[in-house]
Design a protein that fits this description.
Its main location: Golgi. The chain is mainly alpha-helical and 359 residues long. Helix content is 54%, strand content 2%. A two-stranded antiparallel ribbon has the order 1-2. The chain is globular and about 70 Å long.
Length: 359
């Protein structure tokens, strides 16, 4: 399924469009710089630490991307947690089967050899917490990178210096120009990203606003999904991008609309048809909680909240329904192995072979 900005145009000032530019900027070689890029830009990013100071363009365990597209890996993220990388497509099927059996055993708390909706809900919440704790650990490293004086607070200027340095600008020269309040000559795309990041920065600054971010506020800046205030902000930006009549609500047609010129061939049409069907189902069956045909910001916020226990229970029921061949509203080991591709992204061969013996 297509993600990112592939299916929807964004306005130049849009927060989401600017976030999409982060990926573009990150892969632009420094030697092939546009003509209007300042001479301050003289090197490429060379360390993982540089990239960690940027807000990620994908949030694990959140049902919707920041550009309004559905997270196609959501089921795997909330079922596998940090073990996702162990289920790569090219990994050995027998090893993956064994790992999946181990996960089944962990989810099956009462050891009755089946997984109930409540057991799956508990597991989803546990895996979501894993993603959050990973974000906290990464944030500590990122915060140190942007807090050079170690005073526990980061100014917008401190962050701006580190951001531009991560994009290939000379850090000392940028810092000197900012200190002297001199104009920074940067290309248009970089300037758009800076403006969007600045807006996001001040949204993360909890009241009373002091234009400084501490470590917790910086976590909200990088991971808005784990801050109620920033989650509201993220929802507001998504609605603004999809809302066509300006009523700050989403109809089904607004939620599934595609830009003109997207479909260029029959294969593209099939992809778009699948995309529309998926979004229509999600809108009608999940997001529109009161079934009135309209999605409000409040409904979208509840839908996107990764720590919403009610959503986790609904998700558990949906995940079970996909593989529940005997219709007993539980998952048996044979079922979860047969539908391993849905749960892990990896298809297992001979899924039922010796399953009881291995378990």
């Amino acid at each position: 399924m297509l993600r990112g900005g592939a299916l929807r145009r964004r306005s130049g000032r849009g927060f989401l469009a600017s976030l999409a530019l982060l990926a573009l900027l990150a892969v632009t070689p420094s030697r092939a710089r546009p003509a209007n890029v300042s001479s301050l830009k003289d090197k490429s990013p060379s360390s993982k630490e540089d990239n960690e100071i940027l807000p990620p363009d994908h949030l694990n365990g959140v049902k919707m991307e920041m550009d309004g597209h559905l997270n196609k890996d959501f089921h795997q993220e909330v079922f596998l947690g940090k073990e996702m990388e162990e289920f790569e497509e090219d990994s050995e099927p027998r090893r993956n089967r064994k790992k999946l059996i181990e996960i089944f055993s962990k989810v099956d708390i009462n050891k009755d050899r089946s997984i109930s909706a409540k057991e799956m809900q508990r597991w989803i919440m546990e895996k979501t917490e894993e993603h959050f704790q990973e974000a906290v650990r990464e944030n500590k490293l990122s915060f140190r990178a942007v807090d050079p004086d170690g005073d526990g607070h980061v100014t917008w200027d401190e962050y701006r210096v580190k951001f531009l340095a991560s994009k290939g600008f000379n850090e000392k020269e940028v810092a000197e120009k900012i200190k002297k309040n001199e104009e920074l000559k940067v290309d248009e795309e970089t300037q758009e990203v800076l403006e969007s990041l600045k807006d996001r920065w001040f949204q993360a600054d909890n009241p009373p606003a002091d234009q400084l971010l501490n470590e917790q506020e910086f976590l909200s800046f990088l991971h808005p999904e784990h801050s109620r205030g920033m989650l509201k902000y993220m929802v507001k930006e998504i609605v603004r991008d999809l809302d066509q009549d300006g009523d700050k609500k989403l109809t089904l047609s607004e939620f599934i609309s595609l830009p003109m010129g997207t479909v260029e061939n029959q294969h593209g049409q099939e992809i778009d048809d699948d995309w529309v069907k998926e979004r229509k189902k999600e809108f009608q069956e999940v997001i529109d909680a009161n079934k009135d045909g309209i999605v409000t910001m409040e409904e979208l916020e509840e839908y996107m909240d990764p720590m919403n226990e009610y959503n986790a229970l609904n998700e558990a029921k949906q995940m079970i329904a996909v593989a529940d061949e005997n219709q007993n509203h539980n998952l048996e080991l044979e079922e979860i192995l047969k539908y391993s591709e849905y749960f892990t992204g990896s298809k297992l061969m001979d899924y039922a072979r010796n399953v009881h013996e291995e378990f």
